[in-house]
Amino acid sequence: MVFGPLDPSGSDGLPADAVTCARLGCHGLAAVTALTVRDTAGIEEIHPVSPDLLDDQARCLLEDMSVQAIKVGGLYTAETASVAAQVAADYSQVPLVLHLGQRAQPPDNAADEDEADDLLAATLELVLPQTDLLVIEHLRLAQWHADGDIDIGDAPSPMHALVAAGAEWVLVLGSPQRPGHYANMLLGPNGQTSSLPWQAPPDRNGDAGGVAATAIAAMLARGLEMPEAVRQGLAHADASIAASFLPGMGRRIPNRIQPQ
């Protein structure tokens, strides 16, 4: 099951995630968090659904079918984050992958900034403790740290602080290792760290993390253990992004149906 926005361009969101799930042998279910107006260049409008509607969508499906994994991405209000957290808590036996996306644009005004702060607080306080794997890009995590949005306390790094805050595993994409060298870093519940290859996306590429998060969730649904699910999910994402195409005047779209 995927919690996410409806992207009419197919660049990201639920239509794209459905293709990834099908390509990896899974049947994807959708809980729509928002309707968007967008093309391949970017988003023009976001219309979040009501918390009650999101809750009804998810529970109607979960009471009908056996779900093997949940991916959460594209939460736009603190209230919908609370719904996702409660659903996850009620189905705690199902592994949950939380994708927090690329570095966010600065809010336009004080009201938007307050809403963004509330959403981040709800996500970290409510959803993160239910999370089996958090997928986040290094630039966004660095932004949070620089802005003081997360307090690492005595933790050796921001990713360690996220594990301490409740995530069982944390995957940081595009983490700098030394000048000119990057890696995907996976941190586990016992402090074990793995460095996995990172492939720079082509120019004008969209959000690479969404492909990876969905692919990993599909691998977990198929019964793989976390480290192997991450390895295979990242390999699928890298291949999809390497084969990306340019259908319009905006960004490239990962080729989610590329041959294995």
Give the secondary structure arrangement, pairings included:
Elements: E1 2-6, H1 13-23, E2 30-38, E3 43-48, H2 51-62, E4 70-72, H3 78-90, E5 96-99, H4 110-127, E6 133-137, H5 138-147, H6 158-164, E7 169-178, E8 181-187, E9 193-197, H7 208-221, H8 226-242
Parallel strand pairs: 1-2, 1-4, 4-5, 5-6, 6-7
Antiparallel strand pairs: 2-3, 7-8, 8-9
What does this 3D model show about the protein?
The chain is 39% helix and 21% strand. The chain contains eight helices and nine strands. The chain has a nine-stranded mixed beta sheet, with helices on both faces. Helix 3 links the parallel strand 4 (70-72) and strand 5 (96-99). Helix 1 crosses helix 7 (208-221), helix 2 (51-62) runs parallel beside helix 3 (78-90) and helix 3 (78-90) packs parallel to helix 4 (110-127). The longest helix is centred in the middle third of the chain and has 18 residues, at 110-127.
The helix-and-strand class reads: alpha/beta
Strand order within the widest beta sheet: 3-2-1-4-5-6-7-8-9
Question: How many strand elements?
Answer: 9
The whole-number mean of residue pLDDT values reads: 92
Radius of gyration: 17 Å
Strand percent estimate: 15-25%
Strand and helix order: EHEEHEHEHEHHEEEHH
**Number of discrete helical segments:** 8
